[in-house]
Amino acid sequence: MRRFLFLLLIGLAGAAVLVRLGNWQIQRLSWKQGVLAEIETRIDDAPVSLPADPDPERDRYLAVAVRGTMEPGEIDVLVSTKTLGAGYRVIAPFVTDTGRRILIDRGFIPASDKGAERGTGLMSVTGNLHWPDEIDSFTPDPDRGANIWFARDVPALAKELRTEPVLLIARSETDPAITPLPVSTEGIPNDHLQYAVTWYGLALIWALMTLYFLWRTRARSRSSKE
């Protein structure tokens, strides 16, 4: 009887912990969906002027419109997309009509277009401010000789192109040959539902295993008595 009660207690406690973890992930899912909805609203807001002192936290995804001069001297960042395949993001310096020098992510070009001339000069650009977190310990150093970078490291790009560490990702076209890759929530992970299903599945397995061991213990107890 003691062994039976011990197994029952362990089974109930373990299942309760696993169910609680599943419930927590459901709560996190609801929170994350709210965050993503806020980001999407911010992305789609009416564009405003470039802030005087953009902050990577406060102004992330802020919709901005600028007018000025797109300058030559781009940096090509290697990228692969689901729909367009492999190619490069074109990062170029842009001087606003107020004299500020910032970075513009103009969008995607296929690998075959690397080195082609781009449209420069006076233009208006609408997009969203962003400071992508794309650097980790496995990111290779840029190949400056071939003008190939492997991540949008805003401080490093700004130093290379002598701009402010401010990146505006264009959602308006800046050149007919460049496909804009505007900011979206697509790349923001939201795996809480999968985690919840995993925890609930483990709870079910734990409960079934507990029932099996209880049945086996009781069967053995009956067998020994007979």
From TrEMBL:
* Stretches that traverse the bilayer: 197-215
Q: How does it sit in the membrane?
A: Multi-pass membrane protein
Keyword set, alphabetical order = Cell membrane, Membrane, Transmembrane, Transmembrane helix
Family membership noted in the UniProt record: Belongs to the SURF1 family.
Q: Which Pfam families match?
A: SURF1
Q: Which gene encodes it?
A: surf-1
Gene Ontology annotations for the cellular component aspect, listed alphabetically: plasma membrane
Q: Where in the cell is it found?
A: Cell membrane; Membrane
What is the official name of this protein in its record?
A: SURF1-like protein
